[in-house]
Design goal:
about 280 residues, alpha+beta, 6-stranded mixed β-sheet, about 40% helix, about 20% strand
Length: about 280
């Protein structure tokens, strides 16, 4: 699970972040032509590609895009095997959004990798996400935002905005909104911490300078930087659409899982142009 720590109303919240277009279509399967932790795009497998040994964080999305040039469509991702068997689950994932920059691609690849590392039947290991470490704020400069404000205020014809954004070199601001909206963020229940309590703990532990203190301080700094960058993205959304960004939802996450008898795996596979044997391994 990808976890986005963020500060809101004097609380430090933990938010799960995942792709909206990822739907679990099969549970507990094992196919001859698909292994665990695999990505399959138009019959091509990540494990058999030149991308498999890459240390680049964006290797997954680079592979997906490279195999989708002629036939862009949804693709398949398999999870890791269950702890007590060789069976795994299968996700069908919508085609990736158009590339905006390398930093947003890193976030997308992390979401794909999170699916691949999922172990069915377990809570799994949480992995923190830092917008700052991914470099997502590098292109969201105050200069660009000022240009955006000027165009929106002076040009009332919204149909002219895309052209003017392009000419001003700020088209990536609106493209960033489109890209970010491919993610679904949900507050993880019972994981919210009062910011004052966290600060008190850090103040008490600072003199010790232990590993626990450094980890907790890093967590808090990450939450604050995520908040700053999220606020900036929300402000851009407000300028263009006259409403704040509503990426983060409260309550339980939506169930994006279809029952086994609701989807014929063979139909999903052939719809994507992929040939995977429908037989379970013995």
């Amino acid at each position: 699970m990808l976890i986005l720590p963020i500060v809101n109303k004097n609380r430090v919240m933990n938010v799960s972040i995942r792709l909206k277009g990822a739907v679990k279509v099969r549970r507990g399967v094992c196919y001859d032509d698909a292994s665990q932790s695999e990505i399959i795009v138009n019959r091509e497998k990540f494990s058999e590609s030149s991308f498999k040994d890459s240390k680049d964080v964006s290797a997954a999305v680079d592979f997906i895009r490279s195999k989708s040039l002629l036939h862009p469509r949804s693709f398949l991702v398999t999870t890791k095997e269950e702890n007590d068997s060789s069976r795994y689950d299968v996700y069908e994932v919508a085609k990736p959004p158009k590339k905006v920059n390398d930093n947003l691609d890193k976030l997308y690849s992390k979401a794909i990798t999170d699916l691949r590392k999922e172990i069915p039947g377990t809570k799994g290991r949480g992995r923190y996400v830092s917008f700052e470490e991914l470099g997502i704020d590098e292109h969201l400069t105050n200069e660009k935002i000022a240009k955006l404000q000027h165009i929106v205020k002076t040009e009332r014809d919204e149909s002219e905005w895309p052209r003017l954004f392009e000419e001003a070199g700020i088209a990536d601001l609106s493209d960033t909104l489109d890209f970010i909206n491919n993610f679904e963020c949900t507050i993880i229940s019972d994981s919210t911490i009062p910011e004052a309590s966290l600060q008190d703990s850090l103040n008490a532990m600072e003199v010790l300078n232990t590993r626990e203190y450094r980890h907790l301080n890093k967590y808090y700094m990450r939450a604050k930087s995520n908040t700053d960058i999220y606020t900036k993205i929300s402000y851009i959304n407000k300028i263009i659409y006259d409403k704040p960004l509503t990426l983060i939802n409260s309550g339980k996450p939506k169930q994006l899982i279809k029952k086994k008898d609701e989807v014929d795996y063979k139909r999903v596979v052939y719809k994507n142009g992929e040939e995977i044997d429908n037989k379970r391994a013995a």
